[in-house]
Amino acid sequence: MNNQPPQRPRSPPRGGQAPPMMPPSPKVAKMGGAPPAVMRPAAAPPIVPPIAAPRPPQPPAPKPAAPPAAKPPPSPQIDPAAEARARAEAQKAAAAKARAAAEAKARKEAEAIAKAEEDARKKRAAALAEAEAAAKKKLQEEAAALAKAHAEAAAKEKAAAEKRKAEEEKARKKAEEEARKRAAAIAKAEAEAKAAAEARAAEEAKAKAQAKGLVAAVAIKQAKDQEAAVAEASKKAEAAAAAEAEAQVAAEAASREAAAARKRADSEAGTLAELKRKASALEKDAKAAGATIPDLDKPEPKKPAAKKGKKSSGGSKKRKSEAISEEEPAAEAAGGDDAMDMTAVNKLTADKLKKELKKRKLDDKGKKAELKARLVEALGL
């Protein structure tokens, strides 16, 4: 495609017609390019001015000092027709020469145009190839950048997924560990509650046994007193006096034993109160933990009573009477704690309060008011 703008035709020379249009060169026709809309006209032949007749040579000016020279012969006369013919032939030759020069110039210009068009085509092809290469390179760079961005996004997403998975695994392990700890705490609380219930049952059974023993001791003592009274009534007065003296000594010993038994009973009562307090605290903890506390206060099934053996001999009766005599101070001690009222507690000093609390295996540290409150709570006053 010819991108050159159309050229204006030259005006015809004065006094003549416009020169004929030059056909396109073979190279331009071979390239398939159409001639421009207005072809450049062939160069007009130059206007050759008419050739003037040659002037006859002028004789040199005569020298004044020189002698007169002889006159030259006269110049021959020029034929006007021959001069016109010569002038026409010269004009024709000049026109042919100008036409040949114009044609050569036109050919050169056509070749230059074809070469320029070829160079322009090559430049356009090179520019197009360069543009295509640049576009291809740009597309490749954009594709590489897009692939890189996709790879980075995929790597980031993978890293985020791995991080999220690690956090979920960590949270799951933490939840499992907390669940194990809660289960262990619940099991421990249940075990402690069970142990506390067993300890409470054991202490209550022990307290019941002690109470039964005390009641039995009192009953045995009453029977023994009754038996002694019947025996003493049948003896003589001298035996009665001796028995009275012995009874007085026994009473003093019984008083001492009663004091010791009272101390032991106070200690046992303090221990029982402390166990009850601990059992109550454990029961609260177990209930707070949701543990099931069995009812240990239900009566156990009665065991078949063992068959009573034959009556023992007199020696066994004597041993029984001695055992009864040893259990009497314990029976008296049972009423010792009941005898301690608020008046007796108020009269106790701080040291005595500490001793009483220590006997009951309670905390003996603190001020007097705290010690007194603990002892009153232990005694149930």
TrEMBL record:
Positions with biased composition (Basic residues): 304-320
Compositionally biased spans, kind Pro residues: 1-12, 43-77
Composition bias type Basic and acidic residues, residue spans: 100-121, 149-177, 225-238, 274-287
InterPro entries reported for this sequence: SAP_dom, SAP_dom_sf
Region (Disordered): 1-177, 225-341
All copies of domain SAP, residue ranges: 345-379
Taxonomy, superkingdom: Eukaryota
Compositional bias annotation for Low complexity: 239-258
SUPFAM superfamilies: SAP domain (SSF68906)
Name of the protein in its database record: SAP domain-containing protein
Natural source organism: Pelagomonas calceolata
